[in-house]
Specification:
Number of strands: 8
Largest sheet: 8 strands, parallel, barrel
Strand content: 5-15%
Radius of gyration: 18 Å
Pathway: Amino-acid degradation; L-proline degradation into L-glutamate; L-glutamate from L-proline: step 1/2
Shape: globular
Organism: Streptomyces coeruleofuscus
Helix content: 40-55%
InterPro entries: FAD-linked_oxidoreductase-like (IPR029041), PRODH_bac_arc (IPR008219), Proline_DH_dom (IPR002872), Proline_oxidase (IPR015659)
Distance between the termini: 27 Å
EC number: 1.5.5.2
Protein name: proline dehydrogenase
């Protein structure tokens, strides 16, 4: 299986150096990372929203080793929000954050991450948009969900992510679907043991459909994070069966992957949000996107040859 191999490489300093030094790497990364700084991404935001798409912005970087780095991550998001304000896009441009960037893994990390993410959520609310808490490996999820619940007391629009491959996710989905929260469902992109996660791709797909059905039949706002044409079609059918209008759920896909599908769904009236990452610490993000599904390797390879 390629996925575990790629995930192992994402944690290897030696592989990081090799991949970063490869001549082809910059060309590939430039297609899937929107830029290194906020000045790079503002034109991208304007272009994509001008095409009828919506965005969730991710400042990449997770290997935080001290509180100063966590504060810098917070400040990077605050800078982004400051630049979004004059664009007046509201929820058409939201943010996705990984709590590891805000210090979650440090001593006292739960409290530190909450303290760092709260001003980002507050600032986002002030410009009429919101924040989604990304899911990371299974050991971090109890903390993430607790922070999500705490933030929603003052900012009920705060979203979170659940991962279909984890055994716990069906129960998490039932809890979240009942309380009106915004929930992005993805397959999962971390190396997890068989004691907590499905490892077979077909089992993961079946779990994805079960969880998505729960979200569609619930009271929350489902966000379908997938590039899989079959799962996209199933999502549309489940939404139809649940009596949901087009603005009562959305699709989400990664910047640079299946861009024609982004535009097709938007043209059909669907809310289509592009997960748009930027920053200099792109390696871990990039490698997990490859590991999520072997087909992503084909997406990346094909994108070297075509603008589609």
């Amino acid at each position: 299986m390629l996925g575990p191999v790629i995930l192992a490489a994402s944690r290897s300093d030696r592989m990081r150096r090799l991949v970063s030094a490869a001549p082809v790497t910059k060309q590939v990364v430039d297609r899937f990372i929107a830029g290194e700084g906020v000045d790079d991404v503002v034109p991208v935001i304007r272009e994509l929203t001008g095409q009828g798409l919506e965005l969730t912005m991710d400042v990449v970087g997770e290997d935080i080793t001290n509180p100063a780095q966590a504060a810098a991550a917070r400040d990077a998001y605050l800078e982004l929000i400051d630049r979004l304000k004059p664009l007046e896009l509201g929820t058409r441009a939201e943010m996705s954050v990984k709590l590891s960037m805000f210090g979650q893994a440090l001593d006292g990390g739960h409290e530190l991450a909450l303290a760092n993410v709260r001003p980002v959520v507050e600032a986002a609310a002030e410009i009429g948009t919101t924040v989604t808490l990304d899911a990371e490996d299974h050991t971090t999820l109890d903390s993430m969900f607790a922070i999500h619940e705490e933030l929603r007391k003052d900012f009920p629009q705060t979203g979170c992510v659940i991962q279909a491959y984890l055994f716990r996710t069906e129960a998490d989905a039932r809890r979240l679907a009942a309380n009106g929260s915004r929930v992005r469902l993805v397959k999962g992109a971390y190396k997890e043991p068989g004691s907590v996660a499905y490892l077979d791709e077909h089992e993961i797909d079946r779990a994805y459909v079960r969880v998505l059905r729960t979200l569609m039949e619930g009271e929350g706002y489902p966000m379908i994070g997938s590039h899989d044409p079959r799962l996209i079609a199933i999502g549309q059918e489940l939404a139809h069966r649940a009596g949901r209008k087009l603005d009562e759920y959305e699709f989400q896909m990664l910047y640079g992957i299946r861009t024609e599908e982004h535009l097709r769904l938007a043209a059909e009236g669907h809310r289509m949000r592009v997960y748009t990452a930027y920053g200099t610490d792109w390696y871990g993000y990039f490698m997990r996107r490859l590991a999520e599904k072997p087909a992503n390797l084909r997406f990346f390879a094909r994108s070297m040859l075509t603008k589609g």
